[in-house]
Automatic annotation (TrEMBL):
The keyword 4Fe-4S does not apply. This is Heparan-sulfate 6-O-sulfotransferase. Its main location: membrane. GO terms for cellular component: Golgi apparatus; membrane. Gene3D superfamilies: P-loop containing nucleotide triphosphate hydrolases.
Amino acid sequence: MEDRSHKVLLALVMLFLFAVIVLQYVCPGTECQLLRLRALSPAAAADPYRAEDETPARFVPRFNFSAGDLLRRVDFNIKGDDLIVFLHIQKTGGTTFGRHLVRNIQLEQPCECRAGQKKCTCHRPGKRETWLFSRFSTGWSCGLHADWTELTNCVPSVVDSKKEVRLRPSRNFYYITILRDPVSRYLSEWRHVQRGATWKASLHVCDGRSPTTEELPSCYTGDDWSGCSLQEFMDCPYNLANNRQVRMLSDLSLVGCYNLSVMPEEQRNKVLLDSAKENLKRMAFFGLTEFQRKTQYLFEKTFNMNFISPFTQYNSTRASSVEIDEQTQQRIEALNFLDMELYDYAKDLFLQRYQYMRQKEHQEARRKRQEQRKILRAKQARLREQGENSSSTDYIGNVERWRR
């Protein structure tokens, strides 16, 4: 029985070697060798993005987006005048992503980050001018955690403030941001505030002015709100943590800024949500904290810029360590009902963009393989033709010699 199994194994090995020899004979070129290496490599067998985050096994799109909405590839000219503007929403993982932008991108002229300094110098190649507008490159030049309304009005004037109007270049401003699951983000903000954070330096400028204390009351009377309980945090009706992502991504001038008397609450909420969705869709790029590797992939494909080290999916955060009951979960969701709807929309668009870009990538790879096979077949046909011509020439020559 053992001899029989050895014979079967030997036969399989001989068959494999025979197949390799035949393949080498049929396709001896480097093209086929590369194809064989790709086929045998582990990367070809598994999708490196699938197991890194919380992607559902079968993603079923809920919203209809056009091809233009899904295809995100901008012609970012880092040597020209184009500018990437990072809209940093609190507690969305923006600090980590912001560091990736200044420390982890392969560039002809990398950002210069010195020890002990919070800001890095991100100059264009051969110029003393920045290509990135963010916390870690230009600082909070438009105010602490400036929102869409502030950035779109402030950035152009700040960037070109020292130039005469007629000398200011025609720039492309590419806005980007990161979103996060609203409940996790809310809990993370509460823990941050509980430790003493206030963001009191935020300007909230809209239509040329900051809100009055009547328009934007404070939730606390002291220097900060440190030590506040989750219940106190949820009970404050003026808490800017509520629906923060929608407010920071919408055009607040559409609803009278922070003046709640301009229109009915229901109408205001609808305008804000619609504005946030439209601005998010039209942004050059947005990522999701819950999908780190896909966020990296989409940024790289959008801007044709590659990161040096892969993003890491953190499953443990300060917010995830907070244990809440179902009633509290529902309360937080109710307080952030606009953010909940925006996140569902963003997640659907994000995953559709990822699928679309991957399909495009696979189609391009398939097209290149077909071109390689076409070139290979043409090369083999030429070799056969040369061989046949050589054989025919030899035969005719031999006939001529025999006649002599």
